Amino acid sequence: MQGQAALARCSCSSSPGVPTLGPYRLRLLLEAAATLRGDLRRLGSDLLWSQGTPEALVGRLVALAVGAGATRLALHHYSQPGRGSADLERTVAAAFAAAAARQGVPTSVQRYWGSTLHHPDDLPFAALLPQRAAASAGSCADGSSGGAANARSQQQELQHPQQQQQQQQQPAAGSASGGGVDLQQDRFACLPSVMSDFRRELLQARTPVRPPLSPPLAADGSSSSSGSSCGGSTVASAPVLPPLPAGLAAEAAAAGLAAPLPTQVAAVYAAAGPAAAAALARWEELSGQRCADLAPAGSGAHDPRSAVPFGMGEAAGLRRLRHFVGLDAGEEAAVDDHSVHGKRAADQPPPLAGYQDSRMLAFGVDTSAKLSAFLSMGCLSPRTVYAEVLRLAAADAAAEQPQAAAQQQQGEQQRQRHQQQQQGEQQAEQQAEQLGVWRDPQRGDTWRWLLMHLTIRDYFIFLALKEGEALERAEGLAGRPVTWQHDAARFKRWTLGQTGLPFVDACMRELAATGYTSNRGRQNVADFLTKALGLDWRWGAQWYESLLGDHDLAVNLGNWAYNSGVGSDPRDRTFRTVSQGQRYDPEAALVRAWVPELAALQPAELSHTPWEASPEALAAAGVVLGEAGSTSPGSSSGGGGGGGVQTGPGSHAGCGLPFKLANFQGLYECTDSVRVGRPASLSELRTLVSLYPRVKAVGTGHSYVRDLFCTGNGSDALDIVMTELQPVLDLSAAVPVDPQQWQGRGAPPDVPIRVDEEAETVMVATGVTQRTLLDYLAGYTHGLSPRGWTLPVPAGFIDQTMGGAVATGTHGSSMQWGSLSSQLAGLQLVLANGTLLELTPQSNPHLFRAAAVSVGRLGVLTQLTFRIVRQQQGVQRTLQNLTVDAFIQQIKATADGYAEAQAARDEEGVQRALRQLDEAQGFWAVPASYVLRVDFQRPDGPATAACSPSPTRVHRAAIWQDGEPAADVHANVTRRDGSAGSEQAAGVPAPEAPVAAAAVDRLGVLAAEAPGPAAEAAVFPQTDEPAIAPNLPMTSSAAFWSQFFMAALAPKLTPGTFNSSRESFLTLTEAETKLIGTLAPYRQHEVVIPLERAGTCLQQVAAELYGPNQAWEGMRTPWVIRFVRGEDPYLSPTAGGPVMWINLDDYVSLSSGTPNAPFERVVELLRAQCGGRLHWGKEGWTNHARCFDGASEYAATWCSFGCAAQELGAGNKFASEFAGWRFAATRDGQPAGFASCCTPAGFSQDCRT
């Protein structure tokens, strides 16, 4: 046992100072070891016990074995993921080899893998395959090539002949043997970072689960009485365990290694030395518990309130598993099970029957499986759980289908005939196929939900192997700098359960007293520690590591990073702790059990919100509230967000404390005084809007302008988080969301997505993300569209909320459908006074158009109705690599054709011209002087005219060997004048420093396939190792940065035919947008230009970029050029005509602190000579316009919008601090009431803004 190190070690210099192996887990470990010793002794073997460092103990064991006559020694162990495990394994192996060498005996080391449901060699990700297999399987983008079965066969082919012979000799080949599985970090590079993607790829690849091994037999053929054959589901023959040599047993007994295991936890810490004793004392201080009072291991004594009143060991784990899934009907409880599981009648449904609904509940023994401690301790393997669940599923299927029963019987006979592992794997896969294992759980499923959680556990373990030490950085995997606080006093209030929030306090007290709290409780207390108190998430993770009896390092760290907003998941949500408690502890059973101060409050629900109780109710229950609604008399809330006995808006439901709000770049933050509203319902939202003088709605933080998400600078300002309304949270928590579960009956009322197939519309809450909506629509296949539904053209940010995408005028590229707001069929708006208003194009066209693109300036959007289309198969995406001149000629020909047809009133000619640009997008690498053009052809869409011929060029980066190029990297670069050059493209400076190809790969790019004329110059040897990006500053080589971003973009644009519209969309994920935003701060501009001027405009721009002024030097990222049909005049300068959007970013001015003059010249050219209008959702607007998109230039739009605000009573409630949002009017040079200037005919000609 690793005594001193685990009992005393603290993970970082600023840690809480508690032991990583805490008392509850140590007690379970002692119980598990005791039961394992009993099992081994029944087999004629033994388990020896001692305390010390592993390297010292292994040397002692070697000496004992050799002294007993051993002539050959083997060290067998399972590999573990996580902090220091690999180093520890190497240290022990080296100590073992050295000790054996001193004794003159040969050794071998055998490593195994059993931590996960799926074996690493079976995962369908290319980088996880052996080297030769990976070479044939392709890149991460096509990681499933070859399949898992093929990978396993190639793995066997690649093994050393001795390994193959060992496997043939060992029937139990299901575990990693003969050297063990390769767990090097780079093997997991292609593992999906997002959990839902990981699960989806496992399901799609039908990733197999290897059958569990049979328990070992003694030399005489007997087995351990507590072992299990898993109901006959194993296929590997049982290994024979040789007896412990008599000499070794005697030597061990004489050395005291066979003495009874300790049962007093405190004694183990005392024996570990002063450091362990000091860490334990700190643990007792922070938990409020005394280790000496902990019941002895094996006593069966538990707190009567405990949700995990189980002993530890394989037998106890199997009993718990079979009780939960229902394979114990009619069985008597074991004597040593302490009556936890009584006899269950055959007709009584097992706990698993209600698992889908109960698994999130915070109180009760059977609400969830409670298998985590058995899994983390190694008493049960995930594969054993899987086998038992499939046994249950097969029994259910056999009971319902006699034919299936016959097939099951036939399969059982076959398993008895075949004992080899490969055959067993094939049979397991066949059974899984028959039972539909590779399908997401749906409403009514039971066992699939349990298997899903095993897969989620796999994800966190494999993620830890992929990320290594990065998982424990302060900024986590998100990579965004975060300033965490280290306030010891507040942390102690949290650990002791004295925050003032009943649900948080109950969970923390339960954890401190029992070593367990529910999954939902863990998420909420983590959220509160990091997002309400602002304390370092690693403190919380280390406290959990020390407290949890079921602690698993990878699972714990992964969950903490996720719930703290620094994990790998693109979503970063915040819990409403009070409503979470009300939902998942609906009868306040958890709160009343663990916060007895509130137990007498009536009705019971008031225990969650004692600050809402009347003085009479508080007095009757003997409750005295603290300063801010604390449940502990005389104490403050410690930052709790539940409100309290206060006055003013802050006392109302949904009102949070000051909270750090920032956009996705981390470039702009709201002041700390701005309050955060987290309404759980529409009624709460309306109340908050009416109470506060300044209000803004916020989604996932995709705003480029501070004034779009910061409503003000003082405490009278409230930002309302739209992603935390309870229906939206429930939808996010129900992963995956399968609309088929309602089978056409219509979703329940609280589901915030409603499909109307007859009207071809979908109604969605504004806090739902576009990803969730698209996935939901794609799965809506049980009605009129067997392939499901989709939005006609989505927005570019897939993780943006639907409300944010609409209000900020987000768009794709479509001449047929227009921007996202143009696809609206209705909306719901909360006005300044809290009134709820429904608007449609028919009911009030003027107000509907204004509200749809209002950036929250007119009210808070709460619900949107979109038009939808049937999902299509066979969508084609084409890619052209064009010179700038060729691209401009294409656009000019189309634009000129449109203008001529428009002038001639030739409607057919107009539509023919527009079809040539429908869904077309251009990505212009300005310094590198080329454009990638992407077009789409949909099977039932309008035929598009062929583009002018232009061959697609394929470029390969130079191959690097030992840090040097294998060939002249500039040999194939084409100069702007068309000649070849080996130095650099004419006019384009060479990169100023070498940069890693791996940095490009961080963005999901294969550098060897970077496109573009100068792609060979995009990859350079590495001099140092940046975390996520090259070390070149943005102020350096424009040519390099242009190529870097184009290489990052290239995989998104891959041409081909797609199975669905959903797969063909060009979108950026939350993780990608945040990663790009961390390279350097930037200001995004977007200019919209009338289509008839597009070709001439691009020619003028090219002359400015590549002519004498060389304005290309101010550019870094590629320009994105898109085309949108006639838009509302609120969004378009052409009163409804088609337009070209140009997206361009200024990285230089913020990085250098000086104006980016070339960039500004181009922006002014687009505005002055091209008739361009700035998009008011991007930062360029606030830098160039005095007010709303320059009211002086577009007075009619501005004034009409102002009249809409006047009509809706918006005032300046939603205006933030930016003066451009303020509506004011003058008449004859004198201030005039804005309302007096609004007439039925529009804004009065006598008025000015």
How would you describe this structure in keywords?
Uridine Diphospho-n-acetylenolpyruvylglucosamine Reductase, domain 2; globular; DNA Cyclobutane Dipyrimidine Photolyase, subunit A, domain 3; Serine Threonine Protein Phosphatase 5, Tetratricopeptide repeat; 1249 residues; 44 helices; eight-stranded antiparallel sheet; single chain; alpha+beta; five-stranded antiparallel sheet
Q: What order do the strands of the largest sheet run in, or round the barrel if closed?
A: 21-16-18-17-23-24-22-25
Average pLDDT value? 74
CATH T-level fold name of the domain at 482-646: DNA Cyclobutane Dipyrimidine Photolyase, subunit A, domain 3
Q: How many strands appear in the DSSP assignment?
A: 30
Query: What proportion strand?
Result: 5-15%
SS field, number of helical segments = 44
Please give the CATH architecture of the domain at 482-646: Orthogonal Bundle
CATH superfamily (homologous) name of the domain at 482-646: DNA Cyclobutane Dipyrimidine Photolyase, subunit A, domain 3
Largest sheet: 8 strands, antiparallel
User: Termini distance?
Assistant: 78 Å
Cα Rg: 33 Å
Principal-axis shape = globular
Task: Output the CATH class name of the domain at 482-646.
Answer: Mainly Alpha
Helix content: 25-40%
Give the low-pLDDT segments. 1-5, 8-14, 129-139, 141-178, 225-236, 330-339, 403-408, 410-425, 627-660, 942-1030, 1186-1195
> Strand pairing plus helix content: what structural class?
alpha+beta
